Amino acid sequence: MTPFGEKLRALRAERGVALKDMAEELGVTPTYLSALEHGRRGKPNWAFVQRVIHYFNVIWDDAEELARLADLSHPRIVIDTAGLSPAATALANRLSRSIADLDAETLEQLRATLDAAAAKRKT
To answer: What 3-state DSSP class applies to 80?
Structure first.
């Protein structure tokens, strides 16, 4: 499941909306919507995200969050390490081989480490 798919499913559940009904309103098939929620489709395009925002009538920060999650939701990532250090290439390869075996706590720790490194670069 992708971050966008997880949020989409949560919004549907909160509002008691059936997948079939939402798909019809958004002009997509239930199969597409299900695949999007489960991470079996690529990240949604901007127009689709806007339709979802309007469908759920979300505004301001919630709409921005939905768009941000959509941007983070490509289920098949390619990391180009050409021109980077051997350590960067080794890390990218190791992560690609082991990410499926990492538990939620470890994934959160890795995310926090990357966030801290990004914040450090900004200062």
So the answer is: coil
Alpha-carbon distance of 46 to 33, in angstroms, equals 15
The C-alpha atoms of residue 30 and residue 24 are separated, in whole angstroms, by 8
Rounded (5°) CA angle 75-25-71? 25
φ/ψ (deg, to 5) at 110: -65, -45
pTM across the whole model: 0.70
- The total of structural domains in the chain comes to 2
The token pair at 18 is 């059936």
Which pLDDT band, with edges at 50, 70 and 90, does 42 fall under?
Answer: confident
Domain hosting residue 116, numbered range: 86-122
For residue 26, being part of any structural domain is answered with yes
Say whether both 7 and 44 belong to one domain: yes
In a domain, 78, yes or no: no
Measured between alpha carbons, how far is 123 from 119 in angstroms, rounded to an integer? 7
Are residues 7 and 66 located together in one domain of the fold? yes
